[in-house]
Amino acid sequence: MSTTAVPDTHEMVIIHRVFRREFRLLPDLIEQVTVGDTARAALLTEHLGDVVASLHHHHEGEDDLLWPPLLQQATLEAELIHRMEAQHHSLSATLDQIDKLSPAWAATANQADRDALAAAVRQTAATLELHLVEEEREILPLVREHLTVEQWGKLGERGAKSIDDKRKRLLFLGMILEDCSADEAQAFLARMPAPVRLLWKLVGRRMYDGYLRTVREG
């Protein structure tokens, strides 16, 4: 690979912030829902479901497009890469448990289902944090050393196409930009197609602000 063309792995750190933040905040938001408030329970479970689906897509993209080339090109790090794969399998099981618990609470908003779901999300947050820390510390330097910009770009392209609903795609863009610095946001948006940037400016930002108030404040 070229000595001057190095993958920009910071965009992965930015994406990871979304999952860290949402899995950190959601257990408390769930526990604060009044017993019997099925409207609020349904809103939060839909949001949670979208976050879970996005994390599934994120990990599937890495499974298909990141681990195979790293195993080929960073052969001395095979044990580390296989450990990352195993962590994905473990996280997939906890995410499936969240998906199983969510419908019951959305339908009844009872205390037992609420507390079970909050506990599952909190446990997932702890497991996810361990995985993300190791991935950022150990894997991203390998990406910069061994993968081409083109190989890395395929992962981002796949992630951009993982959400079919255009409204939810804008909302996820809002989740990405929420904790970005001004420079990070400008750089991230610069990589978006011009129509997406225009749509974000015209309606996306306002849409996300309203959605954020609904989810976080009730």
Structure, described:
The protein is an all-alpha fold. The protein has two domains: 10-162, Four Helix Bundle (Hemerythrin (Met), subunit A), CATH 1.20.120.520; 164-218. Helix content is 83%, strand content 0%. The protein has helices at 10-31, 38-65, 67-73, 78-108, 111-146, 149-160, 166-178, 182-190, 194-217. α1 packs antiparallel against α5. It is globular, with a radius of gyration of 18 Å. 26% of the residues are buried.
In terms of topology, how is this protein built?
Blueprint (H helix, E strand, L loop, with lengths): L9 H22 L6 H28 L1 H7 L4 H31 L2 H36 L2 H12 L5 H13 L3 H9 L3 H24 L1
Helix pairs in contact: 1-2, 1-5, 1-7, 2-4, 2-6, 4-5, 7-9
Q: What labels describe this entry?
A:
single chain, 218 residues, mainly alpha, Four Helix Bundle (Hemerythrin (Met), subunit A), 2 domains, 0% strand
Head-to-tail CA distance between termini: 50 Å
CATH classification, class level of the largest domain: Mainly Alpha
Question: Which architecture of the largest domain would the CATH scheme give at its second level?
Answer: Up-down Bundle
Helix content: over 70%
| Total number of beta strands | 0
Task: Give the gist of this structure.
The chain is mostly helical and 218 residues long. Helices cover 83% and strands 0% of the residues.
